[in-house]
């Protein structure tokens, strides 16, 4: 796999990893669409049912880097197949859950499995592809999450409406079976296996350059979610009919597919150099909403641009963290691969909270300024990181 072109074997592996992230994403995100069904069935409040979402996100963020560090020496193929098998079992048990406590425990364990599998998928995509095609491969793998939001979640929600929320977990169990079969036949046997101590792994987090790179996607996602979290009230303020909001949100998700494609192109050359300007454009797009939402058509077009900008950072920052790990702590690439998904969750939580504070202080549309300011912060952090990269490349 050292050529500069993608062979059929490469593409088969890319599509297998994309299917895996689609399945994992559907399982993670669909809970939002079936939350009221769960709360009604298990006789609890929607607020209590909502802890199933927050518990998943918190567990994902905390457990993923820890488990990746502890298991860095595991054979990747066998470990991934074991985790996919565990995912199938956990989702099957969700089908027969009869209490909140049981479902919460299963979702927490699923979060651990999901975080580790996502990180491993990114490592496999990075190390098995020609160097100039890594960005394309990882953008496809990230694309699985986009498809999960656009296709998987709506299907899972409809199934819950027709047959009950338990049936949605039957769907994710079935999809997990497909992911296991394709992975069993396609995942290569000879994947890197690095033996290192937990101390070696976590020493990566003491490197200032790694921490700087971590907060680039955290701020990037934070900028988007400061606004996106409150997109429904923004749409209602624009005069969007209630029956059209779900269609608009579907359109938002559909546009993000193209954002994912562009993310791969940005990552193909001078990714961090390009990304500093991407964040500046994102800042303009987000702040423009303050004015464009006064006109329905202009507002919708601006929201479409917001979706297009939302995940342009994913592929570049994922590869950047892995590459920086190769420089500062080569034994910790597993931990490095887990940092981007963790950073995205940190950014989502940070952006949503920050937007919420501003929203409750007064004018809803002030969240657009918050998003713009955070995006400028991401641009500045990227700029400084790029400058340091350039200095490092210069001969002493």
UniProtKB/TrEMBL annotation:
Residues annotated as transmembrane: 12-35, 47-67, 79-102, 108-125, 137-163, 169-189, 210-232, 244-263, 275-293, 299-322, 334-357, 369-388
SUPFAM superfamilies: MFS general substrate transporter (SSF103473)
GO MF annotations in UniProt: transmembrane transporter activity
Keywords: Cell membrane, Membrane, Transmembrane, Transmembrane helix, Transport
Domain Major facilitator superfamily (MFS) profile: 13-390
Gene3D superfamilies per the UniProt record, alphabetical: MFS general substrate transporter like domains (1.20.1250.20)
The keyword Disulfide bond is assigned to this record: no
The protein's name: Inner membrane transport protein
Native source organism of the sequence: Neobacillus vireti LMG 21834
């Amino acid at each position: 796999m050292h050529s500069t072109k993608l062979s059929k074997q490469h593409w088969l592996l890319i599509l297998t990893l994309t299917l895996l992230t689609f399945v994992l994403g559907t399982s993670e995100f669909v809970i939002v669409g079936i939350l009221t069904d769960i709360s009604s069935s298990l006789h609890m409040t929607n607020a209590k049912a909502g802890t199933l979402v927050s518990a998943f996100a918190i567990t994902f963020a905390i457990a993923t880097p820890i488990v990746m560090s502890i298991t860095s020496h595991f054979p990747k193929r066998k470990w991934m197949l074991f985790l996919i098998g565990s995912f199938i079992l956990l989702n099957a048990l969700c089908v027969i859950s009869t209490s909140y406590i049981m479902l919460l425990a299963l979702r927490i364990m699923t979060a651990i499995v999901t975080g580790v599998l996502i990180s491993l998928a990114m490592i496999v995509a990075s190390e098995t592809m020609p160097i100039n095609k890594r960005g394309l491969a990882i953008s496809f793998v990230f694309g699985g999450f986009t498809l999960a939001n656009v296709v998987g979640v709506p299907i899972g929600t409809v199934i819950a409406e027709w047959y009950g929320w338990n049936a949605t977990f039957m769907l994710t169990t079935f999809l997990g079976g497909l992911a296991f079969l394709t992975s069993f036949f396609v995942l290569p046997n000879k994947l890197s296996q690095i033996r290192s101590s937990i101390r070696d792994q976590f020493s990566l987090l003491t490197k200032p350059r790694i921490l700087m790179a971590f907060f680039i996607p955290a701020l990037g996602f934070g900028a988007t979610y400061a606004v996106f979290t409150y997109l429904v009230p923004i749409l209602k303020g624009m005069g969007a009919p209630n029956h059209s909001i779900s269609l608009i949100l579907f359109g938002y998700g559909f546009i993000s597919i193209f954002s994912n494609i562009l993310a791969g192109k940005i990552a193909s050359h001078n990714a961090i150099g390009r990304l500093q300007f991407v964040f500046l454009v994102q800042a303009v797009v987000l702040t423009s909403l303050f004015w464009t939402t006064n006109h329905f058509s202009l507002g919708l077009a601006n929201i479409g641009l917001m979706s297009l900008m939302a995940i342009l950072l994913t592929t570049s920052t994922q590869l950047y963290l892995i590459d920086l790990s190769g420089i500062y702590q080569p034994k910790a690439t597993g931990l490095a691969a887990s940092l981007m998904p963790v950073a995205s969750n940190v950014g989502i939580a940070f952006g949503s909270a920050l937007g919420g504070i501003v929203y409750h202080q007064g004018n809803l549309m002030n969240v657009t300024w918050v998003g713009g300011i955070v995006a400028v912060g991401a641009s500045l952090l990227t700029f400084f990181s790029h400058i340091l990269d350039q200095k490092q490349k210069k001969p002493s």
